[in-house]
Design goal:
CATH class: Alpha Beta
Strand content: 15-25%
Strand order of the largest sheet: 7-6-1-3-2-8
Number of strands: 8
Distance between the termini: 22 Å
Radius of gyration: 15 Å
Largest sheet: 6 strands, mixed
CATH superfamily: Peptide methionine sulphoxide reductase MsrA
Helix content: 25-40%
CATH topology: Peptide Methionine Sulfoxide Reductase, Chain A
Amino acid sequence: MTETATLAGGCFWCIEAAFKEVDGVESVTSGYAGGHTGDPTYKEVCSGSTGHAEVVQVEYDPETIAYEDLLEVFFRIHDPTTEDRQGPDVGSQYRSAVYYHDEEQKETVERFVHNLQGGGDFESYENDEIVTEIAPLDTFWEAEEHHQDYYDKNPNDRYCQFHAEPKVEKVREQFGDRAATQ
């Protein structure tokens, strides 16, 4: 039985590519969450007028990888201390957010962020406030088809080379023991 995590950490192309490298992740779907309009388009979300964040929904096997391990990957591949910005992407649609699916996920992410903020095991954010939004998932809107598997379909795209590739490499280097077998 799979479980689902919904995460926002900048451009969904980059986050999607990185999570596809993790063992136990069965699928990653790019989309939108956290906004106030129904069925938004990429253009509408990019305008900042819908309130949505670019997110990925990660379907994973909890027998292979725990939710907390997904959070560890997530917090290593993006900067949770910058509000409404990741790299060159600026706007609320690029915010850091975890949209939980149940109370257990909520408690896990709150504890995880608390530990990070207090100088947790793998990275210390004692001097920088973590601004990651933690909220219940209301609705997930799947992004348009050409945004799905974007990195895989466009490996020569300059944006992907400069921003997605380093995240993919980071997962391979730092989580090699949990990297998916290709």
